[in-house]
Design brief:
Elements: H1 7-23, H2 34-37, H3 48-71, H4 77-84, E1 103-106, E2 113-117, H5 119-129, H6 133-144, H7 147-153
Antiparallel strand pairs: 1-2
């Protein structure tokens, strides 16, 4: 079975050889330089490391195209908003989007983009509340004066 080499590795090897020939002769070169002996572990157009790098590039480009198409963001605006928010979810300030990109939160009535949120904040907090401010006012009241405390103080639940 013939050995297949990654096309990116071949390009690196060719560039390395060209540089080496310009600097010295191949006989003077280190005999086991990594670029000279590196081979693709599996048949195919790319080795694992180059294939994964290519996948990351394609995924990032597809995400950029999608946020432009769906939310009307300009090229690079997602990255600028991400940096503006300090690289964290706008609400919880915990999620960084390292494992899963932050969602673009927008007003469903107007379509205007508001910020970048983690999945929990976007789906379960804002989505469940359906963007109703009175829901969040009740949440604040609940945290400040919970029903159990009201019951113990003899205050009516709906006051």
């Amino acid at each position: 079975m013939a050995e297949h080499k990654c096309r990116d590795c071949r390009a690196e090897i060719a560039a390395w050889k060209a540089w080496l020939e310009a600097e010295t002769t191949l006989a003077d070169a280190e005999p086991r330089h990594p670029l000279r002996v590196r081979k693709a572990p599996n048949p195919g157009p790319r080795c694992h490391s180059h294939w994964k790098a290519r996948q990351r590039e394609v995924k990032a480009a597809n995400h950029e195209k999608r946020v432009q198409r769906v939310f009307g963001l300009e090229p690079g605006e997602y990255a600028r908003l991400y940096a503006f928010q300090g690289g964290r979810c706008s609400l919880c300030r915990r999620a960084t989007g390292a494992s899963k990109k932050l969602a673009v939160d927008h007003d469903h009535a107007t379509g205007l983009v508001r910020s970048l949120l983690c999945g929990v904040c976007n789906k379960w907090i804002l989505g469940h509340a359906r963007d109703r401010i009175d829901f969040f006012e009740r949440c604040i009241e609940y945290l400040r004066y919970p029903p159990y405390s009201r019951m113990k103080d003899g205050v009516d639940f709906h006051e």
